[in-house]
Predict the 3D structure of the following.
Amino acid sequence: DGGIEMDAMIMDGRTLECGAVAGMSSVEHPVTAARLVMQDTNHVMFVGEGADRIAHELGMPTATHDELVTSAAREEWNYYRKYRSTISALFDNKEGSKVNSTEKRSEPTHAQATHVQRSKMLSSFLRCWSWPSMLNRHTEVVELGHDTVGAVAYDCDGHVAAATSTGGITAKKKGRCGDSPIVGSGGYAADGLGAVSTTGHGEAIIKVVLAHRILAEHVRAGSEGGQEVGGFQRSVEQGLEYMKTRVNGYGGVIGVDGQGRVGMAHTTKRMAWAKAEQRHGGAISAGLTL
């Protein structure tokens, strides 16, 4: 119906404190609202009108519909109304392709700002954006509606954090909620395990509890002596491979393990990313992997 529903989660791996919001429609940064839920309430998740209300009670200003909807989003909505394209078509990948984590550098094309602030210097910081392509009935490729952004961090004391935020999928059903605000699916962080943020087909990610699964399987592989075979990067790729095989779902992942080693991969057509690592002098690198 042209409305707005935004979701987000954030988690502190040191304490396992977390906060989440879903179906928000009147704040500019839902991840900030999720953080306020984590820090200033005794609860974990608020949804819909209650999420907006608690955010405003905790000091977040109200944002109007016109302030939150960009001209590009309006064009996407008008396109949907014309062609009635399905949401599921957003989450395809190249036929026969494998998990893609090959680095190709370019400028990120679009982003929704979010961040994880920590009191100590971060030795790893990543952000990812993913926009799967959509093919309409006339075989014209159109870039449509999937604005998820995630961040994970590992600081100099070995503490980790994760956050995921989304503006939702263009033309989704009212009230539909994907993985982004779901702790364990859209993101997870625990000291000693690591931190992961996910993006992609929300229903599939929820079914396999992707963020937590990747970290748990990585630790299990280590206990069985197999962790060093491909390291954390391989664990990320295996998590996505499992989701594709088990529930035919596609997505993208960024993460750090309990030792701060970075992993990122995707099975969608593309994923933009950026990272900064202390061992490389804090230099920021970014790319768009295809």
